[in-house]
Design a protein that fits this description.
Elements: E1 3-8, H1 12-25, E2 29-34, H2 37-46, E3 51-55, H3 63-73, E4 80-85, H4 89-97, E5 102-105, H5 110-117
Parallel strand pairs: 1-2, 1-3, 3-4, 4-5
Helix pairs in contact: 2-3
């Protein structure tokens, strides 16, 4: 079964390297990419996404905007949403209280992410 991941980050290099790393680790992973929360929402209108992996700090729709938008729109079949950032753990707990499935500290570990999202 193919797993569709949406990677959301305004850093082109990080987004691309994550997508490439996921594909190298597991050929049954398809990665789509967005540069902002608003861009992610446009993709979610057209595609069924299983997992969202998003940065917190982005222009044009940050992580909290994305999380709240997903919570409002998806009542059933909500994608799992994980965030990554270099911020303190207090920020992670705020996101978790608002419905995030998990939080990864930068620099992100592909193996750690894969283990978590495949649960």
């Amino acid at each position: 079964m193919t797993l569709k991941i949406l990677i959301v980050d305004d850093e082109d290099e990080l987004r691309s390297s994550l997508a490439e790393s996921f594909h190298l680790e597991d050929e049954d992973i398809v990665c789509l990419q967005a540069v902002s929360g608003n861009g992610a929402m446009k993709i979610l209108e057209k595609e069924k996404i299983d997992v969202i992996l998003s940065d917190i700090s982005m222009p044009d729709g940050d992580g909290m905007f994305l999380l709240r938008s997903i919570n409002e729109i998806f009542i059933k079949n909500r994608p799992k949403i994980y965030f990554f950032s270099g911020y303190e753990k207090e920020v992670a707990s705020i996101y978790m209280k608002n419905g995030a499935n998990g939080f990864f500290e930068k620099p992100v570990s592909i193996q750690k992410i894969l283990t978590e999202i495949k649960k």
